[in-house]
Here is the input.
Amino acid sequence: MIHTDAVVIGAGPAGLFQVFQLGLLGLQAHVVDALPEPGGQCVALYPDKPIYDIPGLPACTGRSLTAQLLDQASPFLDADRLHLGQQVTRLEVSAQVPLGQHRFTLHTDQGLALCARVVFVAAGAGAFLPRELALPGLKGRPGNLHHHLHADSGAPAPWAGQHLTVAGGGDEALHAVLSLLQAPSPQAPAHITLLHRRDQFQAEPALDAAVREAMQQGRMHLVLGVPQSVQQADDGRLLAIDLAQADGTHTHPTDHLLVQLGLSPKLGPLADWGLPMARKQVGVDPATFASGVPGVFAVGDINTYPGKKRLLLCAFHEATLAAHAAAALLNPDAPQHLLYTTTSPLLLQRLGRA
Amino acid sequence: MIHTDAVVIGAGPAGLFQVFQLGLLGLQAHVVDALPEPGGQCVALYPDKPIYDIPGLPACTGRSLTAQLLDQASPFLDADRLHLGQQVTRLEVSAQVPLGQHRFTLHTDQGLALCARVVFVAAGAGAFLPRELALPGLKGRPGNLHHHLHADSGAPAPWAGQHLTVAGGGDEALHAVLSLLQAPSPQAPAHITLLHRRDQFQAEPALDAAVREAMQQGRMHLVLGVPQSVQQADDGRLLAIDLAQADGTHTHPTDHLLVQLGLSPKLGPLADWGLPMARKQVGVDPATFASGVPGVFAVGDINTYPGKKRLLLCAFHEATLAAHAAAALLNPDAPQHLLYTTTSPLLLQRLGRA
Here is the structure.
């Protein structure tokens, strides 16, 4: 169990700047994010698209902005405090522990437990999780049903030497197929089928062309259809998918199924934490960005208040006021006058710039 | 008379980003500032001090941030819309003109008149004006009493070949003395006296040392004392200053007096515009940053609302929400859904990035 001042849920721009502002105020934070890298939807959805409305940055990208925010937060954030690839599944409030002490316990799906005095929900539209393929009648989570192609670790892939079906028609699916075709023999499937609902992809032209070429060369096949039902072995293992095709239903046997439909934000367990919400957003007080649960704050796209605009620059303001409100809650006797990084020796010392 | 959608009072970071956000929303703005260059107190008071808390800019300075904000606003701000070195002295509200039309007329001390549909007060702590020297008994504004050394225009200086007294003991005064000592002969005074209340300066060591050296070389003189009264000619011209000195009052004759006591923010006429204020700050609604006068918004250090922190990053948020509120006021029938610079062809076209 890790004890810390604050847990920030979400390592997107709002969460990273939240850590920075907490650090300036002398508060230590740990960050949890479902994605394998920081940056949130900025990095997951539009890493290289230019962004023109960050104040003082005439042009940047999701990736470059994230790098800058990580650099800025670095005096207060190291690898030990950044918990990636895991989702917070449970938030426990110990009502008998006084507000300001360690009354919050957060549990992740990887078994991590964090005990905190305040919590910041900077979860954007929710945790970015792999989109599921609709497989009517599926029972349990078969061991040969996979989501998300992981970076090559050198270990033998579960589908090595077998028949792998990749589901999807976007960048993620086509990219996976091309990577797998180039995989060295100990990891490569014996055969690859791409499963999509129609003979048209929504992918970058270069990926599209490369996959079409591989199909013509017979290095892989395309199967069209929409899953209607599945056939599973006694141990739950997936044996085949029954596909609705133009000329009726056909059975498509496979050894493994890799679903590559991209990422989709899921509010998930957060909806059950007792935070007063409206339209999947946490209502907050714009003076403090406090949620309806004392000690829990919400900043960025996840929150709502009169006038709310879902813009990064607004999230930065929200994180700043939330940090100050949390500091006032945790240290009610400390002087609350504002210090500036241009002039305050204390802030410069915390930043390592003294 | 210039007609425009918006007038922004103040060309500091808040005012510059206000212009950018208005431009994104298709609204044209003119900016007025009392200072001779943009950047507000960032540039006037701490141009080269590092700032560490601008989101996504791990380190910048007042000067570099201003340059970046000017660059960012450049699609919407040219020299014709930036009115520097003049103070807005009067704000007229034509109550019979409907809200949303050109009901506001602003007058500056340089005779400029601007007619606008909405007004944004981004005036920080007020207009930065030269600090005055207390000259008891002074009548009128003598033509040989000057404030603020202007950049050398090549034209003959009013004090050329005459006796100039420079008042002050800080960076501004010492810098002026050293500049004047190096001025080419058509502009140079015949003699320079530095007038300060004591034989100690509050200036950078390098400036201090250079002035001390010039004194030792007899290239200028230091006179100590505090003005008690002045002697003026019939036409109001200043003839001499009576100075309280350690051994009594002495008369210090001079041809010109240049007061170099630095800049000080003055709320000035703004206090008389009928905006509901508390402690020299304009009260605003944090959903819109609207002041108590419909159509007039206030952003940055000049405003106040629950939770207010006087930080640049908060001013950026305020300017953004104020721009959206103004756009909703001016175009009540336009769709109000949020457009993003990453994806909106309309915004990219307005930015000149299409």
